[in-house]
């Protein structure tokens, strides 16, 4: 399930503009070319509104069902129920086999999930075209025919899953309680936004079968929903299928609209909270504003960008540059169905007094008032929004989300057209008006979240925030759950046969057409032409990356990539950011383990101008010492912050155990507090010598021809130089096999588990086969790890395994976060599952693996980003242009004996290193019962 505590991500697709991008004009055009998503809408007799969108670009179909019920429909004392019910819906239904909803869809080559937020719940799937009617069957059965199958055992099992989700995302996460504190104090008691979407654990534990049935009968009627089907469909045929599968679902009672008066705060509320996991102080200020679709949301969104969204913005100037209180600052409008909020958020540098941050915000706002709004800034923001419009609807699933959101909450599937117009029409006067009306001199809720025992950093005169915190107890009886017997019930009568329909015609996966060329400077070019939207995405890969960090100064490459984006010889950092923004483009640089990447995206019409900026970044670095100092401080702040994150601790320590501290990959990619301390700007200048084009590769995917690409890239021929050969460092035996390593995070509500071993390189002949052999064990929600630890036992929110892809020998890793008091039981299950894997792998698993991967390929390469990934694989690993087809042949030809050989070579339990990051006081003695040597480490991976 998607994250529950923020407005579901589809609303981020709403803001868009199609304004004038003439680079010589500083005026803002009010004219816009209408952007539309073609669709057909009809309503079934039961009230279900259906929107169909036909798109034959890929042989896939996306289905999204939006229920107009979120946490805002809950009752005090029964919070978290909408999200909990979403989980329950994925269990069983009358005409679908037990467990099939989570297991079968991935096996058909599809993906599925759901999301709940304050106002609604969405269920969605993307499948190959041949499974379209199967999805209609499974989706409609979940919607209209699930309530009779709910058992007490299923209820109790799902409670544990949701509780584990809360522990993972809230209780075990830095700043996880902030949302709860803000909601309790911003909204009056009883207001449906005064509690979090996840709700409270006691409320969840008290849920009964009667509660589940009452909620379903009240809110899950067909008239309280919208259904969108987008993709490779025939509209007339699809109408008939929708009537068959969804037409008999009961309409349900009328759900009355919720109406609440806008929130008014009588005074400023200032609260503090000592966070067990936070290492940095964070200040938030939240002001009540306007709800979604209100005419002022568009200006408030732009206001958020103007205040902090660029290096020229006033809050950035004061907080980051002048006073150096934090690495960044964010301001944004967050609109929901019933209310809206304008948020100021600053995660400050270590030991920073938040009173200073508050004063700096006030100074920044005064600067905004004094300086006003420049036309160029407004133009830049609208150009960026134009690009994000197309990016937001570049896949069939995103189109489905857009259509279903606007239909259910605004009655108009095509409201994106109006949103674009209203956004583009915003003037500087509009922005200043909403600032004066909603922000200036208004009361707010302010939270100071500070590290444990650092109350002195909180804003003066703050009151202590009250938060309910779970106590970890061992052997809690009601947390042990089981599958239980299936429910006994009479099936709901239907005039249709509601048994599983057959597959349709098998869609044929076709590798995209790939072109290859070369520039005179030696840089190789790879491209895929895709004309679905007027966008391009590109990547320049330069071998080396973190491998070229100087010994003892790990983090140079990461810091280098950040500094290179801070201006050019002729442009200040702010000027460079503005030039990119005015094109509606995005350019980034980042360092990975074995490569340095320069990436970008833009509208096709702006590609040539965007490449001119890329050339300037590469050939004319600014070496701004002020920016270097700022970024080094920001890096220090981020590294300090990661020390509070159990997942980050687990990842860093695990790779140190496998590779050893003398190997580059045994050290985090961004370095450590020690390794980065001595880095100077001279180290970055020396690293710059690695930026040579002879071994670099330019990858591009999008609405552009090979000739257009080559013509635009000719200017890069001025970039010259020979790259040096890069040798992969050897790996010494770290002797960690068979041991359990334990890192203490006091009071952790979950234990993070990392289990695995170094396996092979992505260039190894067995690399594909190991990936194939892992599918049944840990490949998504249909994998045994997920099915057992989450579905069967309720110990975790998710459990997976995978193989990292690098030229260097890389690890096979099992990862999960489990309920603290289920740590030992989870370890025992994983140990037994791995030990039995080879023996239990049968011809049935061979066929399941084949079906899952082959069909999954039909949707795996739809997006421009995925197509760029194909090109990067070809260039980095010297793969054939048709390697995807060859991979499929390799999969088809794998025998049961091949799988067993791979498993017995690489997935060997007694060769695995075990790492547990959790609460020592309650779990260390438990872990020792597994019978392996247990070694205690600190959070940096050093023996205690």
**In whole angstroms, how far apart are the ends?**
38 Å
CATH superfamily of the largest domain: Metalloenzyme, LuxS/M16 peptidase-like
Report the major sheet: 6 strands, mixed
The proportion of residues in beta strands is 15-25%
Radius of gyration: 28 Å
- CATH topology call of the largest domain: Cytochrome Bc1 Complex, Chain A, domain 1
* Low-confidence runs: 1-32
- Tally the beta strands: 24
Overview of the structural elements:
Belongs to the peptidase M16 family. With 944 residues, this protein is an alpha+beta fold. The chain has 4 domains: 218 residues, Cytochrome Bc1 Complex, Chain A, domain 1 (2-Layer Sandwich); 168 residues, 2-Layer Sandwich (Cytochrome Bc1 Complex, Chain A, domain 1), CATH 3.30.830.10; 205 residues, Metalloenzyme, LuxS/M16 peptidase-like (Cytochrome Bc1 Complex, Chain A, domain 1); 198 residues, Cytochrome Bc1 Complex, Chain A, domain 1. 39% of the residues lie in helices and 17% in strands. The strands form 4 sheets. Strands 1-2-6-3-5-4 form a 6-stranded mixed β-sheet, sandwiched between helices. A 6-stranded mixed β-sheet has the order 9-10-8-11-7-12, sandwiched between helices. A 6-stranded mixed β-sheet has the order 13-14-18-15-17-16, sandwiched between helices. The longest helix is centred in the first third of the chain and has 20 residues.
